[in-house]
Structure formats: structure tokens, C-alpha cells
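Case study 2.
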Amino acid sequence: MNFSSARQYFYQEIEQPDESINLARAALYIAQEEYPDLDPEEYLNALDTMAFELQERLPSTRYPMRMIQSINQYLYAELGFSGNKIDYYDPRNSFFNDVIERRTGIPITLALVYMEVSRRLDFPMVGIGMPGHFLIRPDIEDIEIFVDAFNGGEVMFAQDCQERLSQIYQQSVTLQPQFLAKVSHRQFLARILTNLKYIYLKKQDLERSLGTVERILLLFPGTSLELRDRGLLSYQLGMFSQAMEDLQTYLVKIPDAEDADVIRQLLDKLN
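Prediction:
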């Protein structure tokens, strides 16, 4: 896979202060490693066009609920965006170009479509990294209206979020304030990459798994578990010097990790 230029563009984008990172552009650079000929401007223009068309459909009074109703009508009823419940773990659901073209995806990538269109309408939304699901809400202080972009833009309140959590985990879950906290741009991108990482690990696609871990480490350098995973993947791919370095660093960071003995045995083989 020739991904050197896409990786470089991704790195340049995320080197900015967090709030200055263009999420759509960064997400397209993630996809560009899979699609080297992808032109990010084509998809950014598609988002511009959506916002332009939607502008004419907006209500005269821009109350949050009325704005959400208008956006939902356009994205879901007119354009046909929907959550991919049939093939949730298709990697294309995590590639932003595919989501825009196919009009289907997973919660976080559909949330990104919604956020990017809303931002262009001066109605910014922020990501909410609820465990097991991803939501968005208007970026308005003290407002507790949440939108589920995966489920047709369903409007939810805190009680609904509590019920959704209990459904996901099939047991009663107490809603903690941090469950509905705004995620940073870097956390948003890491969540996309983490989804891809587990899809590729399940498929035993080690090279692509390694590529996701490398980019998570660009976002959050020195993350212990990602260093461990990069070390293990490097070992499986025969990159032994990288494996040794990462696994040794992992043990220095977490000497009493649950898997420390297994990692030490692996390092003994490498020495």
C-alpha cells in the first residue's frame, strides 16, 4: 500500500491546535491510504453543495429543534442517508468518501456528515463519545439535546441516552456526566481509526491494522496500549527491531501490566 503522501497530509492536518483541525479533511486523509487517487476537494465540495441546497430549506426562525428537523428532512428523507445496520463492520463505513458516496455508514461517520453540513450553516454541532454509541449535540451552552445521526437524526434527551446505554449493554447502566462529554477533534479521529483497527484485526489484516495504530500514535504519542499493539503487530510482520523497542517501552510504562509476563517472554525470543 502506497500511503506515504496520505500519511504526511494527515500528520500536517493534526499538527494544528485541536480546534483548528478540519475533521472532514483529516477523515479523508485516513481514507486516502486505502484510496490513493482520492481527491479530498471533491468530497469537501460535495459537503458544500449539501449545505448550499439545505440553506434554502431552513426555517426563518433558527431555533435548535427546527434546525435539526430541517437537517434531518434533507439528509435522511431527501438524500437517503442511513445507518448501515446490515453490514455494520464493512470498513467502507469508516471511510468518509465512501460514506458520502454510498450515503450509509456507522454512527461516527454519519455524525461527521451531519456536523460538517451543520457547521457550514453556522449551526455547529459537537461530537459526544457515549460508550458503545456516538451522538452529536448543538454547540450551545447548557443545551441537552442530542442527535443520533445513525438512527435518522433521532432527537434524544439525557433520559433517552440512559435507556440507550442500558439497551447496548443489556443491563441497567447509570448515566455518568463524562458519558455525554464533548470529544476533542483528536479523540474523534482516534475513534474512527480504532473502529478500523478492530475490523482489520478481526480479518487478520495485519498491515492495515498496523497502519491504524501508527496513526492513532500520531494523534496521541506514547499511548501505552497502542505502543504494545504496534509492537505485537510489528513482531508478526517480521519487523523485530520496531517490535523490541515498542514492547520494551510498554513494560517501562506499565511494568505490572496483566500481560507483562507474556510480553517479557516475547522479548526473550527477540533478544
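Strands lie at 82-83, 104-105, 125-128, 135-138, 146-148, 154-156.
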